[in-house]
Structure formats: C-alpha cells, structure tokens
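step=encode ok
step=design start
structure_in=
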C-alpha cells in the first residue's frame, strides 16, 4: 500500500492536495483548539508519513499555540492540516 496516493481538498476547491504513500495513525482530538478550529466537538486527523503535494493553491496558516500551526483554505475556511514539531496531520474529512 506504500505506493497509494490519496487526494483531497477544501470545500471550494481552491486548495487541493495529494498524499504520497501510506497514512499513519488516525485520531480524534477533543482539545479546545481543535473544537474551535473545526467548529465541532472534535478534530478528526490522520498523520502523514510520506510527502504532501499541494496540487492546487496552498493553505493559509494560523498559529494556534506555540508549537502548533493549522492550515486552512483562506477562501472557504475548510480546516486542512495540523502541523506540530513531530510532523504533519491532515483533516480526515478533507479526503
Ligand atoms: Zn476552499
Ligand atoms: Zn486538538
């Protein structure tokens, strides 16, 4: 499964991505910042082990805490990424 590519993007289509290779650990984060960022009770995220290619546009970033940067579409607001010192995670609903 390591050569599988998965694609996704935001609601309006301005930002699209392709993830090369296998995905890592899925998680449901209930922290307060994920609740705010997703506008819901939790943030569904999955770790990316391979390369992330932005095939259309690029996310804008919001520094939600000292070590955390959250990527989202500046045009429609869809949450897309969660970057921390240990790596990158993608919002599962964006695939
Ligand atoms: Zn968008
Ligand atoms: Zn969280």
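sequence_out=
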């Amino acid at each position: 499964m390591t050569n599988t590519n998965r694609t996704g993007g935001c609601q309006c289509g301005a930002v699209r991505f392709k993830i090369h290779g296998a995905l890592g650990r899925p998680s449901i984060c209930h922290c307060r910042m994920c609740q705010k960022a997703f506008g819901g009770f939790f943030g569904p995220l999955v770790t990316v082990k391979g390369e992330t290619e932005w095939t259309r546009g690029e996310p804008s970033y919001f520094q939600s805490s000292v070590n955390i940067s959250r990527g989202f579409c500046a045009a429609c607001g869809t949450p897309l990424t969660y970057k921390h010192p240990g790596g990158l995670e993608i919002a599962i609903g964006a695939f």
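step=design ok
step=annotate ok -> The longest strand covers residues 23-29.
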